[in-house]
Design brief:
Helix content: 40-55%
Number of strands: 11
Shape: rod-shaped
Distance between the termini: 161 Å
CATH superfamily of the domain at 151-265: Band 7 domain
CATH class of the domain at 151-265: Alpha Beta
Strand content: 15-25%
CATH architecture of the domain at 151-265: 2-Layer Sandwich
Amino acid sequence: MAGKNNPWGGSGKGGEPGDDGPSGDNGAGGPEGPRNPWLPGGGEPGKRRSASIEDIFKGRGPEGPRRSGGGIGGPGFRLPERGNGKSWVPVIIGGAAVVWVAVTSFHFVQPGEQAVVTWLGGKYSHTLEATGFTAPWPINMVEKENVTQVRLEEIPGTKAEKLILTGDQNLVDLSYLIRWNISDLTLYKYQLSDPKNALLEIGEAAMRAAVARQDLDTVLTGEGRAEIEQDVRAAMQARLDAYRSGISVQGIEINKVDPPGRVEEAFKDVSSAQQDADAAINRSRAVAQQLLARAQGDASEFNNIYEEYKLAPEVTRRRLYYETMESVLSKTDKTIVESGNVTPYLPLPELKRRAQPPVPPQGE
């Protein structure tokens, strides 16, 4: 090692500056010799040194703290400039604004739909009935509705009971269906606070009024149901038009008319007894019609005989006498003949019976 420069200090000679001997400065080196490169601040003045691990993690270089904005996404990140030296930020903002205006200003309204346009979501502006343009959001807000779709409202809903009083003071469990659509979207949106609830309330009032004008038998029959449905639809439409609701009632359909569940068994017994009574009445009427037809036939026959009697009374009287005697005597077993050379009594039925051939017994 003699004669060579010591990388940790001086030239390696004892007593010289930078020597590791007792007279040295613990490897720091003198002003003229190299310094320890592993010590903080080591190296010659004015010369660049490598960054330590601590410097890397602290964001400092060999020369001191780094300048802000040196890394991508850091606090001082800057977009690349355009060719003329101006920034891209205005261009990006302008493009985004154009896209926003184009997207929020054009509104595609499908067939059967209408759109209500409002100012800042509050005041009504106008109604779009076809595809068109408006001011961009949020200046103009657009709400679309299908005005041709027929909507269904079932009253009172599934597994529910709706008891209605009939005109003869009977209760029936009645459920029905309301078919409706929007006739005027502007009135539907802004005339009533809750148009759907108003529709249901008006429908129930009209149904109760129509059923109260009919008796139980009329309500239970198909003809009575059709009349009730027409009355309810007319009453509902008149009331909705008076309220300017923008709703059109397409039809009413009664789904079920049953007695209340608590008296259903008794109602079935009454219905069965009523059916038996109707059957007995029908049988009685049939017998009465048969007797009446027979009496009318006899009367007609008598009238015909009387007409003949008026033409020839003696002949008609004798003919009637003979017919009557023939009818009476044909049912007796005796034959009466005039006395003389003829035997007074002949057992004609017995002789006739003997003259018939004997009937062989069965199985021979």
